Amino acid sequence: MDKKKTNKGPYASVKGMRDIKDDLYYQFQGFFEKAQEVSMYYGFRPLETPIVEDKNVFMSIGEGTDIVDKEMYTLKTKGGDQLALRPEHTAGTMRSYIELGMQSLPQPQMFYNYGPIFRHDNPQKGRYRQFYQFDMDILGSDKSILDALVIKTAMTILTEAGAKNLSVEINSIGDKDCRGAYIKELTAFYRKNINQLPTIDRERLKTNPLRILDSKEEKTILLNQNAPDTLSHLCPACKKHFKEVLEYLEEAEIPYSINKCLVRGLSYYTRTVFEIVEEDKETGRKIAITGGGRYDYLAKQLGSKKDVPAVGISFGVDRIVEAPWFANLSPRIIKKPKIYFIQLGFEAKLKSLNIIEILRKGKVPIAQSISKDNLGAQLATAERLGMPYAIIFGQKEALENSVIFRNMSNRSQETVKIDKLLDYIKSLK
Fold first, then answer.
1. In this structure, what is the dihedral angle of CA atoms 15, 17, 22, 24, given to the nearest 10 degrees?
2. CA angle, 310 then 311 then 317, to 5°
3. Is the pLDDT of residue 101 over 50?
4. Own/partner pairs, 74-82, CB within 8 angstroms, 24+ separation
5. I want to staple 84 with a disulfide (CB 3.0 to 4.6 A). Which of 55, 223, 298, 320 is the partner?
6. 12 is a domain residue
7. Of the candidates 397, 399, 429, 251, which has an alpha carbon nearest to the alpha carbon of residue 414?
């Protein structure tokens, strides 16, 4: 993780967490607006779940996963409640679906969710303990087209955010009817080769053998090349579902490859699992940008009487906005100010609020430094902030109901009547 340039004081942000402001904030906002826009066109609606949930909501993620075993922030309230800061969105989304009785609504229910996520992970570049995720989830249907819809929507978002050379790595890990036999064979394979397993993967063998396929240990990666694959053990229903998903991807001209070791890191996944990867054309290295899958049995783990078939995907927004390909999307809802409003003297300040209101109604945001009266100092501030334009409003201008509009790049300026100001700004290229 990049070192912070700060003044030393008695307090600092918590390790692995950071303040987001100015350009970085607008980058986050720009991505969110783009992701929200695309999602809505594909039929998703907004859902916001609490940052804090009952700890047991996230136990459904599964023992043997790092998130539950090592990374989850937990707390005990004065009333004795065991709570957790959300380490992901999916379990909270399913909890909301059940609690709000969405089973009785037309199915499926399609949502996007955006906000901070918390994991006590090892901080490094692009990885923080508080980070932001954008999720899309479709609940209430097991149709294979929904798996493809989630992937297609995600590919569109990433492409419009600037990503190139995208493809999908995909696998099926089966369901309760066929996974048991596969896990039995997989466990036997690892026990036969236990001497080749690092300590961490030997522990996973006891709790969640599937997680070994996702191991980042070099010895295990080599061993996994000869491990039994899930596709050979799929029941007819799972084979049909997976075949249909691939056909939808082909029809949509989405490039994909089957990765038999792909299981994803959370134990609630069933059937389809996938990651969208970017390939470095020079090195051939593939970097996972986002991923997800189907989780048809999560609802019962959260107390539902019936299974709720569902599929979803998660974006790690911090890594996306810090990626070299990110297009620095300009936010439209929360706009970055491009005009610095300079007010000089009491008469100008007296009338300045009316000008700000005119600009607000015209959807023109500004930056300003009301407390300063020195023109040179305020122009220097505007330059330091990288403002393309400045509005100068002094006593003379206040009397004449005009402003001076200054181009900060070439230092040209023009006097503009206040009642013509919006038209003038709109005329600028």
1. 110
2. 135
3. yes
4. 81/54, 82/54, 82/55, 82/56
5. 55
6. no
7. 397
Q: Report the alpha-carbon distance of residue 342 to residue 320 in Å, rounded.
A: 36
For residue 254, the one-letter residue type is: I
Mean pLDDT, residues 260-278: 82
- Give the residue numbers spanning the domain of 303: 22-163+258-321
Angstrom distance (rounded) from CA 353 to CA 366:
12
Q: Are 133 and 88 in contact (CB under 8 A)?
A: yes
Say how far residue 300 (Cα) sits from the centre of its chain: 27
Sign of CA dihedral 70, 75, 76, 79: negative
pLDDT at 331: 82
DSSP states of 173-186: ---TTTHHHHHHHH
Beta-bridged to residue 272, according to DSSP, are: 172
Are 302 and 376 in a shared domain?
no
Whether 265 has a pLDDT exceeding 60, the answer reads no
Closest to 388 in 3D by CA, of 366, 373, 370 = 366
Same domain, 406 and 293: no
Instruction: Note whether 96 and 133 are same-domain residues.
Output: yes
Total tally of structural domains belonging to the chain: 2
Helix (H) or strand (E) holding 29: helix 22-41
Let me know if 211 is exposed, middle or buried by CB neighbors in 10 A (0-12, 13-18, 19+): buried
Q: Are residues 138 and 84 in the same domain?
A: yes
Nearest CA among 308, 318, 295, 401 for reference residue 352: 401
Q: Does the pLDDT at position 3 exceed 70?
A: no
Burial class (CB in 10 A: 0-12, 13-18, 19+), 299: buried
For the chain, percent of residues with pLDDT exceeding 70 = 93
- In three-state secondary structure terms, 194 is helix
The residue behind tokens 């890191």 is 265
CATH number at residue 273: 3.30.930.10
Cis, bond preceding 123 (omega within 30 deg of 0): no
Same structural domain, 311 and 352 = no
- What CATH number is attached to the domain comprising 347? 3.40.50.800
Q: Are residues 277 and 423 part of one domain?
A: no
Whole-structure pTM value: 0.83
Which distant-in-sequence residues (6+ apart) come within 8 Å of 105 by Cβ? none
Q: Any idea what DSSP says for residue 102?
A: G
